[in-house]
Amino acid sequence: MGGLGGNRVLRAQSARKSVGKISAILQAALFSFLLAFIFLEFAGLVTVAIVVTPSMEPLLPKGSAGVFVKTGKYGVGDVILFRVHGCLVAHRVVAETEKGFRTKGDYNGVLDPWVVPENAILGKLALSIPMLGYAVYFLRSPLIFAAVSTAIFVIFTWDSFCSEA
């Protein structure tokens, strides 16, 4: 009977080691993804924007995070992120002119009053994640980011510290 209990203990230890290895692989993958994403954002190839108005609903609800990728090629139908009068705006291209692009929010009834030159475009919408914008906005506070990063580090490494002791 003692042998059966010993087998259970060995299986439990083996399962814990497997879970630990899987956890380490997932952590490394997540860290690599975040590092690559941060690099792309700093390089200006990717921009994450938080949607703060309903002008692009239902595609981009207020509180969404939009990921915009700089492609260099934009056309009618694309949702682009651009800077106008010092603000970031994400609207759909509805026409091309010699001077740039005419845009309009999907929810808005009229065209935007400006023409967007190509050099003002930060990217084309590649991904939208509803509600994530609130979390991104919250995490952009340096103090909150440091606290959450520390908590995540402790959660993922706690077992390592306990098993070494």
* SS class: alpha+beta
The CA-CA distance between the termini, in Å, is 31 Å
Largest sheet: 7 strands, antiparallel
- Report the strand count: 7
Count of individual domains: 3
Task: Give helix % range.
Answer: 40-55%
CATH topology of the largest domain: Umud Fragment, subunit A
Rounded Rg: 23 Å
The CATH architecture name of the largest domain reads Ribbon
By oligomeric state, this entry counts as: single chain
Morphology call: elongated
Strand % is 15-25%
Average pLDDT score: 84
Question: Helical segment tally?
Answer: 3
CATH hierarchy, class of the largest domain: Mainly Beta
List descriptors.
7-stranded antiparallel beta sheet, elongated, alpha+beta, Umud Fragment, subunit A, 3 domains, about 25% strand
Give a written overview of the molecule.
The chain is α+β, with helices and mostly antiparallel strands. The protein is 44% helix and 25% strand. It is built from 3 helices and 7 strands. It has a 7-stranded antiparallel sheet. It is elongated, with a radius of gyration of 23 Å.
Task: Briefly summarize what is shown.
With 165 residues, this protein is α+β, with helices and mostly antiparallel strands.
Describe how the helices and strands are arranged.
Layout (H helix, E strand, L loop, with lengths): L1 H41 L3 E5 L14 E5 L9 E6 L2 E10 L4 E4 L10 E2 L4 E9 L2 H8 L2 H23 L1
